């Protein structure tokens, strides 16, 4: 949100074409500046240490691997921008995915099964939103509770076993291609474009930033804060279930244990993308960069043969670093 | 009159010399002197915004001075942090207490420096004993075992004082300690202060009540608009002389002329009954088109609370509000906005503005529908142009509509909040302390703006703790005391002493 503030609307400065120095200064103040530098550094590091990093096949692979986490991170971005958080996303994703799989295998028309899966995800999000916005409960507790509930329902529904035997064409969402583009990547891009328009070009987006920036001031200015908070969590539930659709399709199986700790990856993507964990500041483009950075890191560390245990440590350190940089920037303003 | 700050004899415990401090856009303090003797009660006097609190925050290390020095107990000191000042022997009792509500008095007093016994566990008996000794010395009898939230406000204040003394405070700052006390509690506080005096503890006493100053203080230092006016002995001065020092030439502060009052103006807002909680007083008032209605009263007399309850920002037990002759339900600020009522909150930084947002985003936040051209999309070009217009209308001085609001001066920030409501064509505005913490020039601009608005038919409720502002600006004044509107003054009756008399009648503030 900040970059437009600086560039588009001040009629005095918009007339003359800005010189390189001005352009650079504006860019360096944009919230995606540091995430972008981080991504470039990570890519360089991977290119230097692994042989096939820049192979087209590998890049396509990264994009596909990133898509599920990135889609979840879109909803998480909204939640965090509004000053909240949603820990239930991984479990809601699993529930939506197993539900779709189960209903389809049980003979329901696939369109209806998908719609019900997405609907249940949305419903869980709305429930989160209700408890946060209207009951005034802390988001971290509410979503921790619904995380357990959603996971529990998924396990009961499946009896704890994966649901296989999905119709062949269902593989489209996870492995299909449209105009040469991987379907999951296309779905991810569509979700991001929708979120970008919502956050940067509609009143709802402005409210989400405002609530995270100063909820009391937003409320006293007459904005009906609770309904927008409800919407934010609803969106988060919806994006989690879209991720569930993609993952179930890619695995061709409804896995009740899918998505454990996905909430952490989503939060990591948001924070590494430069969004303030306290809300009010950040961008959806940053989240995309953060998610890709995380994907590149996973991919590179795997190719290098780094043990998954060590990978956890490296990712943890990088997240700490990202938060530290974003805090330092805030202090200097 | 003001040689005392040059004294450096052993009698002097604390000297502040040539202290200056600026905040973005405001010169808060300029060349201030303050010197306090051992065992002295020194009053710091000045109107709201004169710089008393800022000076005290510099003394205790919360702010750093831009210039000047602090000499404490014969040594020049620079307190980097609050804790440095506390450790050096300066105790501060703020208006908002720093006690932990769920801990008892003893636990609060020893918080962060708990005593341990031989086995390394908490030495509860020893701490209890030491605390009891301090309270004994002060002649205070309170329950040391219950959480402090069960104590009265006065008792909590005594715990704060005891805490400061347990840290061997040599200078104690009391920031409006009597504001929330009953008459007998205030008397008790004064007797404790006299006791401390006998033990050679110096005190800096901030109060707006002259009687209290004459009752307990030795000397008085007066500040005005962040400038040092002078220091004088209580024995050689009187109320009139002090008021003169406090107010100075500023009595003629440029309030715009009041237009002749239109007695037939229609009622735009009728609050027929408003009761916040079950046993609270029921208040009624009307607001007429084109007038400024003042809400006057002491801090804590319920003015802000009533205003917030009217617009539904806070809940009310019973509420009957009529707008333009029609009953309305105002359950939240959104409802109020829909009915054309806007609030300029008391604290612009925490309740008024989104500091990270630009001027444009702050102004248009509650009226984005106005800029939607294609579906739900905001036409940001149109939004920017409108913002420039509104900024010009209220006189916001800033590089452009994209400037971040957090970087503006207090006066300009306040104008941004006002602009938000004008952009929405609200016709009833509630201004809560509209000029708090902003400089004299910006104040005059806001006064003029308010008059321009009423001339256009806006109706304004102004809550203010500054008497000159109430007297200079209001067409009618509702005076609050302990949550109730005790009277509504009109025309010639709007006069400082009259307002003060009603605001304090029957309370301990009226000794004199």
TrEMBL record, chain A:
Residue intervals passing through the bilayer: 32-50, 62-81, 112-133, 140-159, 179-199, 230-252, 309-326
Membrane topology category: Multi-pass membrane protein
Keyword Ligase: no
Name under which the protein is recorded: Ribose ABC transporter permease
Keyword Transport: yes
Location relative to the cell: Cell membrane
Matching PANTHER family: ABC TRANSPORTER PERMEASE PROTEIN YPHD-RELATED (PTHR32196:SF21), ABC TRANSPORTER PERMEASE PROTEIN YPHD-RELATED-RELATED (PTHR32196)
Keywords of the record: Cell inner membrane, Cell membrane, Membrane, Transmembrane, Transmembrane helix, Transport
Major site of localization recorded for this protein: membrane
Organism: Jeongeupia chitinilytica
From TrEMBL, chain B:
Gene Ontology terms, MF aspect: ATP binding
InterPro entries in alphabetical order: AAA+_ATPase, ABC_carbohydrate_import_ATPase, ABC_transporter-like_ATP-bd, ABC_transporter-like_CS, P-loop_NTPase
Residue ranges of every copy of the ABC transporter domain listed in the record: 14-250, 260-507
The name this protein goes by in its record: Ribose import ATP-binding protein RbsA
PROSITE patterns: ABC_TRANSPORTER_1 (PS00211), ABC_TRANSPORTER_2 (PS50893)
Family annotation (CDD domains): ABC_Carb_Monos_I, ABC_Carb_Monos_II
Coiled-coil ranges from the UniProt annotation: none
Annotated keywords: ATP-binding, Cell membrane, Membrane, Nucleotide-binding, Repeat, Sugar transport, Translocase, Transport
Pfam families: ABC_tran
């Amino acid at each position: 949100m900040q970059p437009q503030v600086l560039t588009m609307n001040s009629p005095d400065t918009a007339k003359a074409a800005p010189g390189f120095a001005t352009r650079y200064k504006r860019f360096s103040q944009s919230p995606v500046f540091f995430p972008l530098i981080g991504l470039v550094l990570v890519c360089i590091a991977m290119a230097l240490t692994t042989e096939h990093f820049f192979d087209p096949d590998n890049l396509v692979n990264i994009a596909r691997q990133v898509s599920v986490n990135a889609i979840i991170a879109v909803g998480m971005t909204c939640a965090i921008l509004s000053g909240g958080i949603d820990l239930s996303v991984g479990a809601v994703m699993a529930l939506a995915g197993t539900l779709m799989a189960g209903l389809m295998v049980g003979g329901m028309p696939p369109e209806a099964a998908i719609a019900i899966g997405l609907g249940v995800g949305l419903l869980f999000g709305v429930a989160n939103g209700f408890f946060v916005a209207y009951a005034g409960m802390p988001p971290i507790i509410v979503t921790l509770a619904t995380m357990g509930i959603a996971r529990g329902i998924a396990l009961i529904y499946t009896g704890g076993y994966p649901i296989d035997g999905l119709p062949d064409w269902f593989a489209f969402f996870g492995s299909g291609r449209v105009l040469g583009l991987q379907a999951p990547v296309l779905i991810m891009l569509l979700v991001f474009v929708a979120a970008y328009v919502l956050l940067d070009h509609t009143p709802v987006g402005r409210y989400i930033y405002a609530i995270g920036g100063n909820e009391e001031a937003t409320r006293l200015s007459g904005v009906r804060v609770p309904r927008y908070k409800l919407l934010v969590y609803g969106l988060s539930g919806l994006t989690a279930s879209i991720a569930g659709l993609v993952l179930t399709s890619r695995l061709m199986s409804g896995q009740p244990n899918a998505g454990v700790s996905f909430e952490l990856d989503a939060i990591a993507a948001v924070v590494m993308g430069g969004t303030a964990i306290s809300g009010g500041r950040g961008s959806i483009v940053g989240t995309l960069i953060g998610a890709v950075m995380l994907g590149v890191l996973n991919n590179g560390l795997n190719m290098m043969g780094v043990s998954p245990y060590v990978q956890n440590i490296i990712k943890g350190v990088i997240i700490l670093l990202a938060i530290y940089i974003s805090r330092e920037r805030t202090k200097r303003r | 009159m003001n040689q005392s700050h040059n004294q450096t004899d052993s009698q002097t415990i604390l000297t502040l010399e040539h202290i200056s401090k600026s905040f973005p856009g405001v010169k808060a303090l300029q060349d201030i002197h303050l010197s306090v003797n051992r065992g002295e009660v020194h009053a710091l006097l000045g109107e709201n915004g004169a710089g008393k609190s800022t000076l005290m925050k510099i003394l205790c290390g919360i702010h750093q001075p831009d210039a000047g020095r602090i000499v404490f107990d014969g040594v020049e000191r620079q307190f980097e942090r609050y804790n440095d000042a506390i450790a050096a022997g300066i105790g501060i009792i703020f208006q908002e207490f720093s006690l932990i509500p769920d801990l008892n008095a003893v636990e609060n007093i020893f918080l962060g420096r708990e005593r341990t016994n031989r086995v390394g566990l908490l030495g509860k008996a020893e701490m209890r004993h030491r605390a009891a000794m301090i309270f004994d010395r002060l002649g205070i009898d309170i329950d040391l075992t219950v959480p402090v939230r069960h104590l009265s406000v006065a008792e909590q204040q005594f715990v704060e004082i005891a805490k400061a003394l347990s840290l061997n405070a040599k200078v104690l700052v009391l920031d409006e300690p009597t504001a929330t006390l009953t008459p007998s509690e205030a008397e008790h506080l004064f007797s404790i202060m006299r006791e401390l005096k006998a033990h050679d503890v110096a005190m800096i006493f901030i109060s707006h009540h002259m009687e209290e100053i004459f009752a307990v203080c030795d000397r008085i230092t007066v500040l005005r608009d962040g400038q040092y006016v002078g220091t004088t002995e209580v024995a050689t001065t009187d109320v009139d002389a002090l008021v003169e020092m406090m107010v100075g030439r500023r009595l003629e502060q440029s309030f715009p002329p009041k237009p002749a009052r239109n007695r037939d103006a229609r009622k735009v807002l009728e609050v027929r009954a408003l009761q916040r909680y079950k046993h609270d007083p029921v208040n009624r008032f009307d607001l007429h088109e084109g007038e400024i209605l003042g809400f006057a009263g002491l801090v804590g007399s319920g003015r802000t609370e009533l205003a917030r309850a009217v617009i539904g920002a806070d809940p009310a037990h019973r509420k009957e509000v009529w707008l333009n002759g029609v009953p309305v339900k105002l359950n939240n600020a959104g409802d109020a906005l829909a009915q054309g009522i806007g609030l300029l909150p008391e604290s612009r930084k925490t309740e008024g503005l989104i500091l990270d947002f630009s001027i444009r985003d702050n102004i248009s936040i509650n009226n984005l529908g106005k800029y939607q051209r294609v579906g739900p999309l905001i036409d940001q070009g149109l939004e920017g142009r409108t913002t420039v217009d509104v900024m010009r209308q209220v006189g916001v001085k800033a590089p452009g509509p994209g400037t971040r609001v957090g970087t503006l001066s207090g006066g300009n920030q306040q104008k941004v909040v006002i602009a938000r409501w004008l952009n929405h064509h609200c016709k009833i505005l509630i201004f809560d302390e509209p000029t708090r913490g902003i400089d004299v020039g910006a104040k005059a601009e806001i006064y003029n703006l308010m008059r321009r608005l009423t001339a256009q038919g806006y109706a304004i409720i102004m809550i203010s703790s500054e008497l000159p502002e109430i007297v200079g600006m209001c067409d009618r004044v509702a005076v609050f005391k302990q949550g109730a509107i005790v009277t509504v003054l009109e025309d010639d009756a709007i006069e400082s002493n009259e307002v003060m008399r009603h605001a304090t009648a029957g309370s301990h503030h009226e000794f004199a």
